[in-house]
Amino acid sequence: MFSACADPSSLDGLAWLGCYLTTGKHIDFYWSFLTVLVLLAVTAPVALAFGFGGAMAARSPVLPLRLVGKGYAAMVRGIPDIVFFLFFVIALDQGLEWMLHQARCPDWTDPIRQGLEFRVCPEAKIPSGNAAQIWHRLYGFGLAVVTFAIVFGAFAANVLYGAMQAVPKAQLETGESFGMSQRQVFHRILVPQMWVYALPGLSNLWMILIKATPLLFLLGVQDIVYWARELGGSKTSAFDYPHPDWRLYYFLGLLVFYLCMTRASEIVLGRLTQRLTRGQATLAGNARRKAA
Amino acid sequence: MSCLQIIGDYAFRSLGYGERLLPRSDFTLCHQVTLIGSGLIWNIYFGALALIAGFFLANAVALARASGRFWLRKPAEWFIFVFRGSPLFIQFFLFYEAFVLLPRAGFDIPLGLITLTVETDWLTRAWAGALIVLFLNTAAYSAEIFHGALQSVPRGDIEAADAYGLSGWARFRRVLWPTMLRLAWPAYTNEAIFLFHATTLVFFSGFPAFQQRGDALYYANYFADKTFNPFIPYPIVAVYFILLTLLLTWAFGRVNARLNRHLPSNIRPGIRLRAQLIR
Fold this sequence. Notes:
The structure holds two protein chains of two kinds.
Chain A lengths: L12 H8 L3 H35 L4 H16 L2 H24 L8 E2 L2 E2 L14 H34 L2 H9 L4 H31 L11 H9 L14 H31 L5 H9 L1
Helix pairs in contact in A: 2-3, 2-5, 2-8, 3-5, 4-5, 5-7, 6-7, 7-9, 8-9
Chain B lengths: L2 H8 L18 H38 L3 H16 L2 H14 L5 E5 L2 E5 L7 H26 L3 H9 L4 H31 L17 H12 L5 H27 L20
Antiparallel strand pairs in B: 1-2
């Protein structure tokens, strides 16, 4: 990258390390941290929306909808989340291709599952066979994001359903006695008040989401774990920067990265809790009122 | 090939008994159920041993964390922070790489007349290495739960103990500790369930499956890769884990009932599953 780094074998000490840490592959490694942050930024709101939908469905007066909502919220309790991660990535991919296949190739006669293969017509491939490499990677990342959102949406549905149940019934009845419709009660009374009950659960969920991001590696995305393994593995003298097995140090770096992330989140979420409990009819809110 | 024969061949495949090679074609439902069930032995092994050993360490760490002494409290706080603040997945990788770097031939510890050679090779194997990581991890999570419970032991209980003239160890063993366990038990049940769920990560995180002896998810993943059909093996794993979770909830519920046996039955706290503690 720098002109001083043109001949690595002549370098030593800090200069060597400086050049080593700015090779093209290392720059890719640093960018992959951004992948993790993008995943967090995209997944968190989508999962929250999924969870909100799930919690609303679980409270619905319509029985089938209620069952769907409750089933969705309950699915993560008994089954390891990793099973869902591994399952949805393939299942979503095959489901999308299957639907495209039905739409685009109605006269295709061969069965889709032939023995051990899953074959759809070429027009139904996602992304299409001649697409650039970047589209394949984006599609893989998109699948991972949707998978994360589904799984964490189920966790969020649990939390939000509990929070909706925790809002005092008298509040809702007061709304009704003022002549509000069910929709108005939901929008104006239930939703504004539920967040304070949901916050401890949602904070916890955010921490879990942060700690689940290395699982991207299992979904085939080139994330920080992938690069740490790749870069840390011992390099023979055939490489520009030969070194022994340094994976331990790379993973130590990742560990520190995650510790910083969770610690910073803890502090921010603590502040947020302080803000949200202001003026609420809960124990923490009472304590703040008395202190003021 | 009959199903009974398949069960005979593969029921203990994950431990290295029976058929040497995994099935390569003609995967029947029986194959999948048997092999995945065989892998579940490892999940139970990791979960149960880490839970039992972790319970003791967790008690010690929770006490250290509640201690007034700086040199006892700080290490406990850091231990909990490091293991709760970082992903289990990274911890597995980190410990595996650390174990690999240990000298293969083992350490020589000179003890005057004789030299003791400590083998380190076994640490890189999943059965020991991953168990150590899970043990430390669950100890940290449980310690946090126990510490929280210890802080919320009602003051009246402690005053009552004082009034009876109990102090020190006797007060801890007969009043504080049982109350702490009672308060912590519902959260600890969750921790146990998610520990068992976390055992599925072992063979996806550096620790190699020696001679393809893996856990339930390892075999499910094998089938999904080979058949390219995720709709059969993963639901099988799911069913196994739901059964395991139900069994755990039942067992912990029995302990919970025993811990609360002195309370009137209408105010005994039940165990409600809260999805809070995956790593």
